[in-house]
From TrEMBL:
GO cellular component, one term: cytosol
Domain of life: Bacteria
The keyword Oxidoreductase is annotated on this UniProt entry: yes
Protein name, as recorded: Aldo/keto reductase
GO MF, any single term: oxidoreductase activity
Residues annotated as domain NADP-dependent oxidoreductase: 16-315
Lineage of source species: Bacteria, Bacillati, Actinomycetota, Actinomycetes, Micrococcales
Amino acid sequence: MVSYRYLGSSGLKVSEITYGNWVTHGSQVDDTHAIATVHAALDAGITTFDTADVYANTAAEEVLGRALAGQRRESLEIFTKVYFPTGPKGPNDTGLSRKHIRDSVHGSLRRLGTDYIDLYQCHRFDYETPLEETFGAFADLVHQGKVLYIGVSEWTAEQLREGHAIAKDLGIQLVSNQPQYSMLWRVIEGKVVPTSTELGISQVVWSPMAQGVLSGKYLPGQPVPEGSRATDEKSGANFIKSFLREEVLEAVQRLKPVAAEAGLSMPQLAIAWVLQNPNVSAALVGASRPEQLADTVKASGITLDADTMAAIDTALSGVVYDDPEDTYRVSPKSRVA
């Protein structure tokens, strides 16, 4: 069964392996299989579920809402996000303005079939809206009981510090950041993690398996497997491209004996690695079929010894992305239309 960790400095516990439905629900996987996979996650002890209104243009929230219908709401932690455009993509259908936040949260509540969201996250930083306006809108939602905690996604250390200060002044908690993080993508370690640790903000990390590359199924010198994420433009193909370089794929193959020595599958090794970071509260995992979860949830509670951690670094030497400056290149400088 899955272990639990506190979310930031709050009293909220979340399952350290959290189910995310970014590229599956409403697009890659039909609803029947999606709902079966959510139920498998529940059976495995996962109680925390992450989505966003923009995923499959709101369809992912709808599917998750149907999958969780009938479950005891008090036993679940439901996360969603706001920023990117949905619907007809009018001038106010994007960003972190008070209007867009208000309209978006009510749509998310309706689609998810709940009267409150445990963690409502800024999907990106909005350079075109004052932070005071954004957090004022969030504070209203918290005080109304529609949202319990506030999080962000892919914010820089400086943005986290400024947002945390404003949230504190408004009497609400900024408890989490949701960045990409894996053995191959470590850009948050330089600035974001130390700042977050200081402020009581934890990481809920996405793509701990580097879009599936750390599973070892992408082989150097070979075509990408048919039906894999790398072949599906709707399922994150653009995100995986940077990891498909020959030298990266060769390095990943060197991880196979490391995983075998530790008695783990490659996915388990990848997920266990991110969970060694004490600032990580949860690793987001997705699945297109229930049996995939049976393997990944076994990463929960595993401690990798120093020799294994060192062997991982040796195998991946020269191919790791770890420049803190990459954290400044994620949020668009102007709103996405």
